[in-house]
Amino acid sequence: AVFEIPEHYYPEKYKELANNPISMLSDRLGEEPARMIPVRNIEIPDLSLPMELPFNEQFSVFIPKHQLMATRLIDVFMGMKDLEDLQSICAYCQLRINPYMFNYCLSVAILHRPDTKGMDIPTFVETFPDMFMDPKVFRKAREISNVLGPGERMPLTIPVNFTASDEEPEQRVAYFREDIGVNLHHRHWHLVYPFDAGDIAIVDKDRRGELFYYMHQQVIARFDIERLCNDLPRVKRYFDFKEPVEEAYFPKLDSMVAGRTWPYRHAGTMLRDLDRPLELIKLEISDLERWRERFIHAVESSSVMLPNGVTIPLDEETGIDILGNIMESSAISVNRSYYGNFHNMGHVFISYSHDPDHHHLEPFSVMADSAVAMRDPTFYRWHSYIDDLFQLYKYNLPPYGDKLIFPGIQVSSLKVEGPAGDNTLSTFWELSTLDLARGMDFTPRGAVFARFTHLQHEEFTYVIEVNNTTDKSVMGTVRLFMAPRDDEEGNPLPFDEQRRHMIELDKFTAPLSPGKNTVRQRSVDSSVTIPYERTFGDQRERPGDPGTPESAGFDFCGCGWPHHLLIPKGTKEGYPVILFVMISNWDDDKVEQDLVGSCNDAASYCGIRDRKYPDRRAMGFPFDRAAPGTAALAHFLSHNMAVRELSIRFTDTTKLHAKTRR
Ligand code: CUO
Asked: What is the pLDDT of residue 133?
């Protein structure tokens, strides 16, 4: 199809295209378009601010000036009265607005406009494949597409671990940091929960500050287990801004928008004050330190100060949410001018550490873009510090104590069944396929496939025996977590450390009749993850195109931890982890709301669109608070809880994804 675009929408240099779009495009595509789509001629709103960003520049919402531009553009997209007007403004913007900013703002608008909810747009990895893979693959793709027709192109293989050698210890967890699904999840989360937008309703979602804390806390906990599986110490928090950043990162990514390579950072780089007038950034390290002091003061006094000087207490229910918004910071921070922008600006300081004063005209590094930030080892050092600051608050809360008990409910056994045998989980490498064509301007056109390697596991089933000793049927919330058994030295983890390493695996409700109940839950139904197909697209073959998968769609439902990383890699010998289950009383947990038609299968880290977070308990419950005096997990357990040691066995073989294999 070809869009019939009003002539005045075209920038001067493309005017010729306006006069004869069909012949120009059919020359380019090598085929006649099947249909014409007229684009409504509307009065174009003022776009001068977003148009200030050059077409070929990097864009980041962390850069205050870019944020202002994006806010304006999101407002414009949100303000279009119907879909046709939205399409029209997109046609106008397409050739004028920085493509990366355009994609960001349109994605936010599509996620938040009532008339575009549920609309599928191509997954980001297919529109901007340059953000996820070795640029060498694009050169090859171009070669192939020139020589071979669409049906004859064999998939290209993206090398595994291409960013550093095995001499670099951090490289042992590159499969996690540079995983396409992990980075898509992170980008998607920040699209669903932007920290700024003209329309405050886009920011002001139920418990978004708490979710900011919890989702990132879980990322660090997950990363730490992967590190332990790979003989690396747990992440060291980065908090002394006078200390050099030890970790180097050389992303080896080319930005197609900017036509440049993403900047790298040497080992031992110091953070320095930032003075980059072009981006309206003038910040001192002492600003970060001051914001941190104020945050810590809020935690210690258990209160926050409003802009009018009035102090309000932090209560057990909303305290963490308020602190999350202050910390990030988001537009709903209770006092942004006082508490500042600690977390976001930490990203910015690290992202400009290679060129703090813009003398070398270098853009920011990966740390300033949520689509690529998780690739950098510093991401985890920064966020584990952020988490420590949140934990300071959590340590001040009273322990749950008796609130953990569910009278009459006893978990009598817990186990896992799967192809690797009872209580053994199995992981391996898997090859999946993506279409690069959408993100590249090929002639002649047609799909070009790239194969990449990622971790995968065999699916399994949790089997939980529950005895309801009351004479009434009740509803329980089943909460499943996993943590490492030992520390780096092989010593059992003390409870207070282990609880902070608990990763959520699933949470669901189960009816419990009087007497014995067997609750079976499949790993694929996890409330943490989205199915593989929603991360990477349906890997089933396209009819008539052997070896080529269907494309992935994307909407709110695209938010969720990638299922292929539900469990850590483990080791060849079998890595010991502790599986934990708790059943709490649904009457105390439930949130009355209608979930019909909403996508709620990855609510644990992403919430539910237009709804409340579907669990009244604190996120991470029961492990979000300390339990002073509890030395080991065994002493924490009440009747409604159980643990089981599992072994995660990694097999170093690579399989083609099951659906492609067929
Ligand atoms: Cu997601 Cu720091 O918030 O990267």
From this structure: 83
Is residue 378 within 6 Å of ligand 1 at its C-beta? no
List, by residue number, the catalytic residues.
Answer: 328
Would the CB of 219 count as within 6 Å of ligand 1? no
| Nearest atom within ligand 1 for CA of residue 347 | 2
Cα(360) to ligand 1 centroid in Å equals 26
Number of alpha carbons in the 13 Å side-chain half-sphere of residue 406: 30
CATH topology of domain 401-441+448-661: Immunoglobulin-like (2.60.40)
Element (H, E) at 509: strand 503-512
607-645 residues labelled b (16+ CB within 10 A) or e (exposed): bbbebebbbebbbbbbbbbbbeebeebeebbebbbbbbe
Which of the following CATH numbers is that of domain 169-395: 1.10.1280.10, 3.30.710.10, 3.40.190.10, 1.20.970.10?
1.10.1280.10
Confidence of residue 658 (pLDDT cuts 50, 70, 90): low
Q: Whose CA is nearest to atom 4 of ligand 1?
A: 370
Residue 252 · residue 271 · CB < 8 Å? no
What does the mean pLDDT of the chain come to? Answer: 90
- 347 CA to middle of ligand 1, Å? 8
Return the minimum-mean-pLDDT range out of 219-233, 430-444, 451-465: 430-444
Using a 6 Å cutoff on CB, does residue 373 contact ligand 1?
A: yes
pLDDT tens digits, 536-557? 765 444 444 444 444 444 455 6
Q: Are 369 and 379 in contact (CB under 8 A)?
A: no
| Cα end-to-end span (Å), the chain | 33
| Domains of the chain by residue range | 169-395, 401-441+448-661
Residue 600, pLDDT above cutoff 50? yes
Provide ipTM, 2 decimals: 0.99
How many angstroms separate the alpha carbon of residue 380 from the centre of ligand 1?
Answer: 10
pLDDT band at 25 (very low <50, low <70, confident <90, very high): low
